[in-house]
Amino acid sequence: MKNYQNYRDFDTYLKHFPDEKGYFGPYGGAYLPEKLIPAMEEISEAYETICQSAKFINELRRIRKEFQGRPTPVYHCERLSNYFGKCQIYVKREDLNHTGAHKLNHCMGEGLLAKYMGKKKLIAETGAGQHGVALATAAAFFGLECDIYMGEVDIAKQAPNVTRMKMLGARVIPVTHGLKTLKEAVDAAFDAYSKEYKDAIYCIGSVLGPHPFPKMVRDFQTVVGIEAREQFLEMTGHLPDAVVACVGGGSNSIGMFLPFVADPVDIYGVEPLGRGMKLGDHAASLNYGTEGIMHGFNSIMLKDENGEPAPVYSIASGLDYPSSGPEHAYLHDIGRVSYVTIGDDDAMRAFFQLCRLEGIIPAVESSHALAYAIQYAKEHNTGSVLVNLSGRGDKDIDFVKEQYGYGEELLKENK
Fold this sequence. Notes:
Elements: H1 10-16, E1 23-24, E2 27-28, H2 37-50, H3 54-68, E3 74-76, H4 78-84, E4 88-93, H5 104-117, E5 121-126, H6 130-142, E6 145-151, H7 152-157, H8 159-167, E7 171-175, H9 182-196, E8 200-202, H10 213-221, H11 223-236, E9 242-246, H12 251-257, E10 266-274, H13 285-288, E11 290-294, E12 297-301, H14 326-334, E13 338-343, H15 344-358, H16 364-379, E14 384-389, H17 397-404, H18 408-411
């Protein structure tokens, strides 16, 4: 456990990070084409104004309660815990948030901001499709147009979410260059936004991109950790020993982590190790990357031999990104969060274990965090671990069945 004593409380941390230019230590900032600088400044100014408005805050609270179904519960996985020992596993049920994942937390905030700014369209990228579905939902709610850019590989893997986006009225635009996954979808969405920024707002899907997006998405997502901390205390009378969440770009995890940042709690961010440690077989940027700039921000990224963003892979479409949010890079550097890795098979084993023992089908992304929590529980004879179950697995079931059947082979291995 390191550096939790640096900040007296959660609010003190938020006041320090990011700074006025959007930096978390050396990470963050806004590295943009000249023509987009005024657009980002407009978004930043509008957000800083609206986030202090009682009218905006009250409207967002109403939406969260009446439309999203917040607060989502914390659930004690008693059978799963007992299967592996005495350490108790709890999950924050973001899979019960409307649309099935944490993404709606910031999408409704971004949609409300777009209405305030007088924009007519929301533009975004998506990998697993959860951000796309959430933004299409927000667009329908606020009466806005919506364009979602998605790699062809992910369109094939996440067909149910593609259908949902189209049913909600969004235009799903296939991205056919490069690896045809999340990084290329971000490229395409940024390019589209550069041509439409006067009438549209780019609603980035994670705590990355140029300032103010890492801060703005972070602020909207901290509702997850604030709720979870209060709920866990009410349920048990104490804080968990460890908090765990998966990390791709990092929105679900930063929202879960920060309300615990000043507490004597170990925090673990779980990156996808995919098929192994070879470059191109994983997307564990914080474990194996170096400092670099992409998509308008400075962070830690995986690079090829030319210093460009490297090809990445994960079975989880929402985690296969060659960098991570700048705040995660900062928390990594100061040692406050431990960033660990979980491979495909371990994540999928945890997927099926939660299905069979608790009756919950998790997202493949969330299964990475769950797998590490199971590993933690095996190594600790007592205590508790709280996992952010960031999404449900409806979107994944066809792909999982095709690749792993019903999990019999994975579950044959001894616990």
